[in-house]
Amino acid sequence: MDVLLNTMAEAHGQLASLHPLLKRVERTSHLADLVLDHLDSPAEQDLGRSSERGAGQRARSLAEDLRTTLGTLERDFAHRVDSIGREFREARSAAERLRLVPASAVFTLLERTARDTAQALGKRVVFEGRGGDVRLDVQMLGVAHGALLQAVRNAVAHGIEPQGDRLAAGKSPDGRVTVHVTRRGNRVVFVCQDDGRGVDLEEVRRLARRKGLLSTQAEAFGPQELLGLLLKGGISTSGTVTDVSGAGGR
Fold first, then answer.
1. What is the DSSP letter of 157?
2. Which CATH superfamily is domain 102-232 in?
3. First-last CA distance in the chain
4. Model confidence band, residue 240 (pLDDT cutoffs 50, 70, 90)
């Protein structure tokens, strides 16, 4: 697809090079108008009454033919350039739409990640994807892919409680992780939520301090900074570190 788009961009560039040629035709047509204006001037009219009248009439006739021919060429050329340019823009737009994929393309992998993480930690979880019909560039989805995987892992590992704790709190034994995808203007927003009790931020702070991940200045970290430490990896509040808990981004 990228090769197709690049080829079309090159072709569009070649089409753009025709515009200077069109300008040259326009200038030549203008020169023909000037020649006719000159032949119709009073001085040339007086010359036309002399012995060179025949030559002047022939020159005028040739100039009129030239102006007519150039005028027709100019209109046809301009029409064709505009038509081809419009078709190129439509084709490029269609090619770019082919690069768009539905957000749901990544939901299956996210669901499997949630299930595998829960199984490794002895939990049960239900994954739900919303906004799967939002279409986005395949490269954008590729960039978001890794962050979404880690967000789902963290939601299961650090957000969802063990079944016993959930039952004691009057909750369903199955935790729920939801990924919402929405479009806001030119931006696509991904939100990962879970119905767990949330991350124990003070436990994150304590573990980070013990592992030497917090500097003196970082002791005052707020919720966002502490959650960022989870995304960097090396910390797990789940009690058991596995290949999916505390692993960080990959």
1. I
2. Histidine kinase-like ATPase, C-terminal domain (3.30.565.10)
3. 27
4. very low
